Amino acid sequence: MPVKKEEPEEAISAFERMRRENIARNQSILKDLAQTSNKIMPAKPKPAPKTRSAPVKKEAVAVAAGPVRRSARVAGLDADNETLKRKYEVELEDQAAKEKAKKKRVGGTLSLGDIAVEGKKFNKGIDGLGSLVPRGAQPGVPTFTDEDIENTSDKDLKDLRKKMGKLELYDKWIPNDIKICPQRIYASTFHPTEEKAVIFAGDKEGALGVFDASQEGPPESNDDDDEEAEWKEPEIGAYKIHSRTITTIIVSPFDHQKVYTSSYDSTIRVLDLAKDVCVPVWEPADKEEDVPLSAIDIPLTNKDLVYFSTLAGAVGKVDMRDPKGFETWQLSDNKIGGFSLNPREPHLLATASLDRSIKIWDLRKISGKGDMRFPAMLYEHDSRLSVSHASWSPGGQIATSSYDDTIKIYDWADHSTWDSSGMEPKEIVKHNNQTGRWVTILKPQWQKRPKDGIQKFAIGNMNRFVDVYAANGEQLAQLGGDGISAVPAVAQFHPTMDWVAGGTASGKLCLWM
């Protein structure tokens, strides 16, 4: 680039000279202003660099690492060092064997204590899984055995257990062949005759079945063809006497030709065995009124009275000479599942309710007006869960079954020691009462007039047995046998003989004699 030559002073015009002088003068003025402003407002010093704290170094936790697969060259080994080579090969083989063992299938019995998963999250101190869920029914597994009988120390109790243990399952037909009712059995009873076992059973749809155990069974034969040819079914009568579930069957203590029944269809009926007719005893005046009956009982002091309970929590009394003059008392806001009268003192009424209570009432002391008219409540006791039935024995004991898996036995002889706060059971027996949806509720039923004078009752067992207990809570027997394919939930004693019947959800009958 050519250098610009400075023009001589003479060649500059007057105008150009003046312009250059003005520029020089202005620059001088600006320089003076800058120096003055720096004196008034000095420039800010540069900020010192911030000192950052050094991060705290976490100490590395030493983790024992297994041998890593790598070559001898990477490990820095001499290619000719055979000893070190062999050492690494052994370590690698050992590691591979351990990894393979972790994935190998484990057989045999495993103890939960030995195989518990390690870690804080999984170690909550559970002692065993059995306590987490209730143990259900175990069909065919006895809970009372011959060994229990042999280990009985009390001689009288042992003799009684041996006696009851001799009862055997009826063998003319197996239970599956004795279909006494078309549907699930809800109620049963024996006819009081001692000449033969005659059993009545009522089912879910109102059919009453009758079975005579004295009838001749099928002939015995060792030849399979003959057995098939000569096979005969048991003779069973069934009668549709109600339109809904039959809840109670009672043979009149005053006339053994009359069988009383109650039903969810709101009626009480009587079957006359001599006349082959079944007539209504009581029903609501309004045909549209629905009063499902849960139970009935007849006092031993008055052949004309029938007491009943309802699913709505009421108890009523009917005089069969004037059924229209019946009386009811609302004793509970919940269902009364069962009740009974004291055989010796029939003015004493025991009720079992869905409200978890058993209550004793005095029918001689009825007071109040209208809907507030009640008998006097003498005592009550609450269970943890609902109470299914309350059954008086001839000796004055009350047996109840409830969904807290207990049978409780109260002794009226102890009532003088009970206070106003409530009655207390004399005996509590553990018993699985979890029937579920498909098995009829388990209810204890006393023998009405035991010949041996021993107060005892029968109750179904969810393991497909019938249990027999004494009034002191001691188990006397567990009745079972081959061919029982369902729970004989509806258990009944013959009034005087040591015969026991059990009805199943499929309408089949089990009989021990």
TrEMBL record:
Composition skew (Acidic residues), residue ranges: 221-230
Record keywords: DNA damage, DNA-binding, Repeat, WD repeat
Disordered: region residues: 35-59, 211-230
Gene3D superfamilies listed in its UniProt record: YVTN repeat-like/Quinoprotein amine dehydrogenase
Single GO MF annotation: DNA binding
Membership in a protein family: Belongs to the WD repeat DDB2/WDR76 family.
Name of the featured protein: DNA damage-binding protein CMR1
Pfam families: WD40
WD repeat ranges, renumbered to this chain: 348-364
Gene Ontology annotations of biological process type: DNA damage response; regulation of DNA damage checkpoint
Record organism: Colletotrichum spaethianum
Domain of life per record: Eukaryota
Key word DNA damage present: yes
Function per UniProt: DNA-binding protein that binds to both single- and double-stranded DNA. Binds preferentially to UV-damaged DNA. May be involved in DNA-metabolic processes.
GO CC terms: nucleus
